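Model: Ready when you are.
Researcher: Fold this.
Model:
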Amino acid sequence: MSYLPPNPAILPDGQEVKVHGSEAFPFAVYCGIIPTFIPAYPLHYHEEMELIYCETGSGSITIDRATVTLHPGDVAVILPGQIHAIAAAGTGTFRYYNILFRFSLLEPPDSETYRRFLAPLADGRMEVPAHIQKDSSLGRELPVNVKMLIENRKENTALRIKACLYGVMDALCKAATPARHPAGAEHRDTRLLRQTVQYVDRHYAEKITVAAISAQCGYSSSHFMKRFHDLTGTSFAQYLIHFRLEKAAALLRGSRYTVLEIAARCGFSNASYFTRAFTRQYGVSPTAYRQGGDRTDD
């Protein structure tokens, strides 16, 4: 049995530096199955536009400060830079596809088309529905191109992929409305989440105290813990452990460090605790996870 997730999907790296696809063609599609491949993806953000298509089961997608529940055929829309997290909704298995691409794949940033249609979405002046339900008018239009992107993800069909992405963006731009929180007026809760993600990404290998991170975010410890739980549905301590374990899983997949070295690099001072926490989250020990082999994206 293989325990590893399909080709690296979204890891909790704060702002990701990974280029999805390639520099020349920044487009990628990943298949995810929660909890089979991974328990969940904690808060993170990246510069790509992302579509999450629910194939089976149901998923809970947190985008900035709101959470939506996807059912088969639904699509979640995540604009560049939006804080988001992915989890299963309920106890069943959530199978989905991530479609990620950069706006620059479609239009150069200095073009009139980019300035008119894509820049307002990229810089937060306009927003689109975060949850496209299967039976809505947009839900009947958007998945046609979304499914084609999924079906053609392994083929060298750059023109077909671009045509589908143009279809997606045309539908979304027609549904776009002025942002409730205009660019430059970032909501305090969004700022809290972003600061938390950034701080944890920089310091996860070190000892992190609630006092230190709450001070960084401008809150008292008690207020920070309550607000973070209200916004994410989990405690900061649970989030930090999940984050560190995701980092550890990435190193187990892609490095030759020993399990002890990985535990230390990911902020676990006690190797036995690391093994217990990892096994509880992934269902297998770190050693068994590493020996599981690679999955394909199907």
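Researcher: Now this one.
Model:
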Amino acid sequence: MLESVRLLAGSPWIYAAVAASVALDVFLPILPSGVLLISAATAATAATATAAPGGISLIALALCAASASVLGDLVAYRLAWRGGPRLDRAIARSRRLTTAQERLGTALGRGGGALVVIARFAPAGRSVVSLGAGAARRRAREFVPWSVLAGVAWATYSVGVGYFGGQWLGATWFSVAVSVLALCLAGSVAAYVVRRPAPEPPAAAATAA
């Protein structure tokens, strides 16, 4: 992939490839959007270091990935909103989606959507949260700002680890592997936080005691 990204480094098609991958992985989490974004950032770092003409702009790359992330979230959110009884039954059969929907509803209802941001780093967490918010009929103003923050945070982190990996280790497969490992580590921590049972409200805890 790194060689392919290098070939695209001087072409605007790299932005289209990143945007398409990031937008679609809300429906197909197996797409290597994170790896592609990190590889593009690594290639951009190498082009900058060698003063190669027509290189990738890291800022434009991050903005492209963040925008595509938000767009994909909104499409999934609206589809789940309009899903109807069939989608509701499918979510009811999925313990993961049901749990996420309940936790997300509680978090957004209290005015805090940090769960949306954290889930963006977890494997398939973005899909679960976007579909859960739509299926729960959460209002757009409760979900969209957190989706924007999540997209910016994820894109900035991914481009950042690709950039620093390229700076320290050069534009090599080893550099990309180390950067992807850093992304996976963040994803593992996020997955742990998302799956952790939500704390009971103080009133419920006092009643249980």
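Researcher: Key takeaway?
Model: Residues 140-169 form the longest helix (30 residues).
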